[in-house]
User: What shape does this take?
Amino acid sequence: MVHTPILVIAAGVDVGDAPADLESEYLANNLPKDKSRYVIIDDAMHFSFIQNCKPNAIVLIEKDAPGKGIVCKDGGKRSREKIHNEILKHIIIFFQQTFSE
Assistant: This one.
């Protein structure tokens, strides 16, 4: 039994690994609804959750490791910084609601 509140955040863009419905959504569907919240960031990709990339990072990475520049790509037209801001808002709201109970 789960007693600790859990926030599950998923990337909405599939990058070729297991899709959200087999990973984060599966997890969220098997958690108690009263103790969990599931959020999908529609234009986030798997690597959108890591730090921002430096300018020209994709070019540098691709030169050294072709195909690995995906770590600096996101799924929509928003910057990674804006995606991070949305993630932060979800986390703050979750904490506020969780710790005010």
